[in-house]
């Protein structure tokens, strides 16, 4: 199944941006689960809790085992065992071009996940599992988390609304032995396609990935995607494919970010249109009359182009409370120092 590694502590600080009102367990006394069964019960009941994880929780074998046929994705070109094969989840292997399938989830709200590492969740197999899967939520703060060696998405949200979300100071490590693009870089990284989502994505470190880092919008379902994504002061490094992939229903404001050795910082799907992104490599004074301040420059080092200047994104941002953004000058050093587990400053 997978493991959760921790650096035990209670919640420190508060979220910036859209999930600023998140309180998690609130006044609930911190408690340490005695075993996996108790941990699972606490995570799935409706009682406000502050759960302290004081060790590595290894879920391998705890949920049982099963044997099932799988497949190699139709797009696979890898040889020598390097490909990420797929579990035949909900008949995925039989579908033309291996399209997406739905997963059952339980909607929750006012959740804080802080200082936890998720790893070893069936990394050889697509549909081997998502580290964090959200389908209907509000006030979700994910902070100082590290995710690596996961079968599918590190984080996925949708198609139901996730509403107010902040993801901050976290590390998404795509290093893997099994990859879709045969390059030891994970493809399925972050996917945001809820029907009414506002996501603050700040101070995060994404590296050694080859796609969906993140994908915003674009899920074909009965629910129309509607995602506003504010990317601020993040660091992308060694990206062998696309960082941003934008689909229908996406609006992205990207500022103060650094891309280094990123082959394709942005890829816009044909159904996304030109209204999906506002970014700049030099700073944009045109932001001032709309959002009340200049947009801050992004930095591209040995990377592809990252362009987009549609004011519909700024118009949407005008009525929102955005997180503060710092100039890009020191973003790389700041992110490397702060992102991931065990790096919380009281």
Automatic annotation (TrEMBL):
<dbReference type="InterPro" id="IPR012334">
    <property type="entry name" value="Pectin_lyas_fold"/>
</dbReference>
<keyword id="KW-0964">Secreted</keyword>
<dbReference type="InterPro" id="IPR002022">
    <property type="entry name" value="Pec_lyase"/>
</dbReference>
<keyword id="KW-0732">Signal</keyword>
<dbReference type="GO" id="GO:0000272">
    <property type="term" value="P:polysaccharide catabolic process"/>
</dbReference>
<keyword id="KW-0624">Polysaccharide degradation</keyword>
<dbReference type="GO" id="GO:0005576">
    <property type="term" value="C:extracellular region"/>
</dbReference>
<keyword id="KW-0456">Lyase</keyword>
<dbReference type="InterPro" id="IPR011050">
    <property type="entry name" value="Pectin_lyase_fold/virulence"/>
</dbReference>
<keyword id="KW-0119">Carbohydrate metabolism</keyword>
<feature type="domain" description="Pectate lyase">
    <location>
        <begin position="44"/>
        <end position="265"/>
    </location>
</feature>
<dbReference type="GO" id="GO:0030570">
    <property type="term" value="F:pectate lyase activity"/>
</dbReference>
<dbReference type="Pfam" id="PF00544">
    <property type="entry name" value="Pectate_lyase_4"/>
</dbReference>
<dbReference type="GO" id="GO:0047490">
    <property type="term" value="F:pectin lyase activity"/>
</dbReference>
<dbReference type="InterPro" id="IPR045032">
    <property type="entry name" value="PEL"/>
</dbReference>
<protein>
    <recommendedName>
        <fullName>pectin lyase</fullName>
        <ecNumber>4.2.2.10</ecNumber>
    </recommendedName>
</protein>
<comment type="similarity">
    <text>Belongs to the polysaccharide lyase 1 family.</text>
</comment>
């Amino acid at each position: 199944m997978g493991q959760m590694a921790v650096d035990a502590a209670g919640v420190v600080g508060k979220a910036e941006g859209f999930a600023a009102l998140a309180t998690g367990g609130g006044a609930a006394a911190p408690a340490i689960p005695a075993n996996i069964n108790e941990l699972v019960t606490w995570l799935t009941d409706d009682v406000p809790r502050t759960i302290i994880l004081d060790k590595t929780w290894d879920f391998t074998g705890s949920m049982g085992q099963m044997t099932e046929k799988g497949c190699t994705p139709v797009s696979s070109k890898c040889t020598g065992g390097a490909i990420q094969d797929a579990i035949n989840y909900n008949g995925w292997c039989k579908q033309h071009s291996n399209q997406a399938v739905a997963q059952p989830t339980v909607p929750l709200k006012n959740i804080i996940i802080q200082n936890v590492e998720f790893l070893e969740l069936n990394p050889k197999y697509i549909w081997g599992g998502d580290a964090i899967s959200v389908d209907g939520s509000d006030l979700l703060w994910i902070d100082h988390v590290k995710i690596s060696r996961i079968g599918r998405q590190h984080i996925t949200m949708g198609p139901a609304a996730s509403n107010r979300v902040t993801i901050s100071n976290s590390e998404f490590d795509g290093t893997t032995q099994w990859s879709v693009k045969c390059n030891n870089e994970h493809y399925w990284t972050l996917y945001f396609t809820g029907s009414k989502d506002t996501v603050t994505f700040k101070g995060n470190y994404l590296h050694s990935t080859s796609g969906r880092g993140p994908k915003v919008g674009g899920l074909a379902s009965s629910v129309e995607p509607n995602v506003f994504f504010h990317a601020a002061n993040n660091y992308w490094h060694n990206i062998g494919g696309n960082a941003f992939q934008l689909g229908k229903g996406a609006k992205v404001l990207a500022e103060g970010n650094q891309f280094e050795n990123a082959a394709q910082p942005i890829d816009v799907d044909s159904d996304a249109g030109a209204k999906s992104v506002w970014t700049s490599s030099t700073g944009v004074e045109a932001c001032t009359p709309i959002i009340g301040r200049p947009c801050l420059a992004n930095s591209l080092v040995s990377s592809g182009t990252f362009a987009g200047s549609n004011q519909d994104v700024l118009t949407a941002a005008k009525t929102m409370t955005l997180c503060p953004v710092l100039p890009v000058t020191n973003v790389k050093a700041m992110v490397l120092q702060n992102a991931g587990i065990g790096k919380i400053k009281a």
